[in-house]
Design brief:
- This protein has 98 residues and is an alpha+beta fold.
- The chain is built from five helices and three strands, in the order ααβααββα.
- The chain has one domain: Arc Repressor Mutant, subunit A, CATH 1.10.10.10.
- Strands 1-3-2 form a three-stranded antiparallel sheet.
- The protein is globular.
Length: 98
């Protein structure tokens, strides 16, 4: 029964479900797609999305907390990148199904 995932450890599935729930917002999908293969600072991200800085920062905080993003401080700037490039591949597959 393990071939279809039924016998997988519960924690493994819980972590994956958390990642999918975290990605379940259009703004977060756009952020992950935009960070594929690069890093960007908060200002660059909110300017690109044309959304208020506070909204973008909140989404970045949630994605960092849930293991999708890494954040590095560069002076007063915080730059974000994907913790795992597979996230970008997953989002690309999701967006291709439009």
């Amino acid at each position: 029964m393990t071939a279809n995932g039924i016998g997988r450890p519960e924690m493994d599935l819980e972590e994956k479900a958390l990642l999918l729930r975290t990605l379940g917002h259009p703004v977060r999908l756009k952020i992950v797609a935009g960070l594929a293969g690069k890093c960007a600072c908060v200002k660059e991200i909110w300017e690109c999305l044309r959304l208020p800085q506070a909204i973008v920062s909140q989404h970045l905080k949630v994605m960092k907390k849930n293991g999708i993003l890494d954040a590095k401080r560069d002076g007063v700037r915080v730059c974000y990148s994907l913790k795992n490039e597979m996230m970008a591949e997953l989002v690309t597959v999701l967006l291709a199904g439009k």
